[in-house]
Amino acid sequence: MEALSRMISALVLNGRVSGYSIGPIGGGSMNISHLFFVDDSLFFCEANRNQVQVLKALLLCFEASSGLKVNLDKSKMVPVRSVQNLRQLANTLECKMASLPMTYLGLPLGAASRAASIWDIVIEKVERCLAGWKRMNLSKGERITLIKNTLSNLPTIANAKDISVEEVRVIAGGQIQWNINFSWAANDWEMDSIEALLSLLYSLQNKN
User: How far is residue 79's CA from residue 119's CA, in Å, rounded to a whole number?
Assistant: First the structure.
């Protein structure tokens, strides 16, 4: 995927694909043209036929040179705001159409992050992960080792970097609960790590 990343970056540098600019106008902005998640990819361009044709040519070139299959039929074109010629652009790329908000890689995308309902799917995934931990047959020593490794990282992910374990741990009814406030809004690609962290913490029982 490094080769594909370099190819799309070259197109942006030469002005053939614009990407998507985020940040304050006039300084400090960042241009994002693509994001890769294992075998899944996101590409950003303007809603015009020329850029879509360039993107398609890039993907076909990458397919021919790498031997990897680019399945455009399973790809989706997702507009940001209103795009009048979306169907025409999708036909050019020979892909399907979708719209925001949507679910991407099992997580909500494009919805208001403060809406409680959009996090239901995240909660369900964490609950399933917790259920899996309950079925795991780890020895006490193995469980303690995992817990120690995780707890050692709490200062770097907590909202206050000098926070102690005691400040985020609550014992109620013989059960340990964790009150962790992350210092950033989690990204899609971080959710698996966060699920693993929460699963590990809530698998610990208060046994002195």
Answer: 23
